């Protein structure tokens, strides 16, 4: 009888245990940020990932009669369907009639004077994946800079970082600052957008060197060791968690002739080239939504399928250059393998040089270890969650 009562007690307690451990997003905590938005003209920086349960943040705000006057959409557009780097034009959200203002219409990716005068407060609610070359944070920084200039408030509704459990890669050498890397941070910075926004303010990293009026609504029940799985793909070519976890290591192929699986059902989970030798695995990139003209389009590529790796194997390796080194040595293209874009992604000039010198991935990783330790110490004052 005691055993039965004990089992019943455990079952009864399960809902509260589960609820206590569930990560609560910043956007779910309406009581924390609605008072900041009342009687204000609101712009939101968001896309298809800005969901509050089963509703979009935009719908939640409008249902509560808050005055949303504009949407800023990042790379891939408000509904998340555009190709990487595709120019997203200004339009109107068909479901609500709220104007979508393209960031590409302004100079340097910053909104125009007319756009900035439309609103009083900017609300940021977008799912990032925690990499220096994943561009959502760059857009956020440009908006923060514009808001500092026009004295507009910024409210970041924080979300977990699915790659927030580690820091890896060299700090960006700012001579390689570009549209795929704009801050002196490692490839994997391990911070949420809210934490990163605080660091940008605190380190005076905005282009204007100003500080914006910033409020961050932190997540609840989250630490940097929480392995949070994204409920919605953050962009067309990161369809699942395997792609998200492999992205830090596979994205380097964007700066080579090697396909990383764009135009297949497993982008960022494979790599190959028509001339790679010694591999039985093959795939053929096709023109698909989100990858209309992928590298090696309609050509049979031979290479490696990484989709069978366990998550634990990927996490243990972190930023792993072995895949790029393997393809470099196999194709034997020397200077025709790497494109200038490689330095923009990796953020420094010594990685290409060391690969060409025959150094191993472990030797190269040893070179950037001091960067990792330096950044961990530098970011500590801005962390909102336990490491």
End-to-end C-alpha gap: 43 Å
- Quaternary assembly: single chain
Level-2 CATH architecture of the largest domain: 3-Layer(aba) Sandwich
Estimate what percentage of residues fall within beta strands: 5-15%
* Chain-averaged pLDDT: 91
* Rg (C-alpha, Å): 22 Å
Q: What structural class is derived from the secondary structure elements?
A: alpha/beta
Overall domain count: 2
How much helical structure, as a percent, in the residues? Answer: 25-40%
| Beta-strand segment tally | 12
H-E order = HHEEEHEEEHEHEHEHEEEHHHHH
Tell me the CATH topology of the largest domain: Rossmann fold
- Poorly predicted residue ranges: 1-20
Strand order of the largest sheet: 5-6-4-1-7-8-9
CATH domain class name of the largest domain: Alpha Beta
Number of helices: 12
The biggest beta sheet reads: 7 strands, mixed
CATH superfamily of the largest domain: Uncharacterised protein PF07075, DUF1343
Give the overall shape, derived from the CA principal axes.
globular
Structure, described:
This protein has two domains: 26-229, Rossmann fold (3-Layer(aba) Sandwich), CATH 3.40.50; 241-373, Aspartate Aminotransferase, domain 1, CATH 3.90.1150. The longest helix is centred in the first third of the chain and has 20 residues, at 2-21. It has a seven-stranded mixed β-sheet with strand order 5-6-4-1-7-8-9, sandwiched between helices. Helix 5 (136-150) packs across helix 6 (193-202). With 387 residues, the protein is of the alpha/beta class. The protein contains twelve helices and twelve strands. Strand 8 (153-157), helix 6 and strand 9 (213-217) form a beta-alpha-beta unit. Helices cover 32% and strands 13% of the residues.
